Model the fold of this input.
Amino acid sequence: MGLGLFTEKFITAGTFICEYAGEIITKTQALYRQKLNKIQGNMNYIFCLNEFVDGRANTNFIDPSHFGNIGRYINHSCDPNSEIMPVRVDCPIPKLAIFSCIDISPDEEITFNYGLNSMSITDETIERVPCLCQSAKCKGFIPLDSY
Ligand SMILES: C[S@@+](CC[C@H](N)C(=O)[O-])C[C@H]1O[C@@H](n2cnc3c(N)ncnc32)[C@H](O)[C@@H]1O
Done:
């Protein structure tokens, strides 16, 4: 699973933790970069945000690999202590904000569910990544977007 993000301080439920900051890229760039990451054995940090905005399906790809912040070290958990949500302030392009959904103690790892804003997998040809979250609610695989 590699690196993760841990808190030194107590975080109360509902607190803004950090942004999942990165470059906004196109679907073509996302697919290209994802393939390149795989070939080069690099970690895949691209987050695919699926939303319904004004009744329409809307997808944004955020890549913190080259320009980003500590948010990129947050791992997936099937029983997370945080949530990621799109926030818009006078701009159609959202920022991804991570908020605690329960109280988090010092030295605990910060996690969110990668799947809440993604589509479920229907394509069996997509290679699935085993989930190492070790929670009792673990579903066995990291949720992946079907792109
Ligand atoms: C946003 S990064 C998280 C930080 C990453 N672990 C690192 O070392 O930089 C997302 C990547 O971490 C890995 N990852 C995150 N959560 C995981 C989990 N529950 N089980 C296995 N791998 C996980 C996957 O390779 C995923 O593509």
Remarks:
- The longest helix spans residues 27-40.
